[in-house]
């Protein structure tokens, strides 16, 4: 019987990044669904950079949330390409959340920090884990 390889810190970071991709995807999808469902939930002042409607932002967040969730599933399947796509998806998510700051700053900052941790976990340790395909 072959001996199983011992988990390393690298596999811990990739597992963390996978779980955070799933959670960030769910959170993005939830906030997007809320934006599409109810425009009155979010309030913003007159001075904001991207003057998109809250419903438009809702659809953007739902699309990004779906992307994050699907990539998180593929990270858990051990696909090596999912590390690169996860870094790109977390970067897109971080940029969208930076633009979303005037509408819901606490949510945006929280998920933005998680996106940075996802990028670190996948960029610094994603190649160290034995992945397939």
UniProtKB/TrEMBL annotation:
It holds the Pfam family DUF7144. InterPro entries: DUF7144 (IPR055568). Residues 13-126 form the DUF7144 domain. Keywords: Membrane, Transmembrane, Transmembrane helix. The chain crosses the membrane at residues 12-37, 57-77, 84-101, 107-127. This is DUF7144 domain-containing protein. The lineage of its organism: Bacteria, Bacillati, Actinomycetota, Actinomycetes, Sporichthyales.
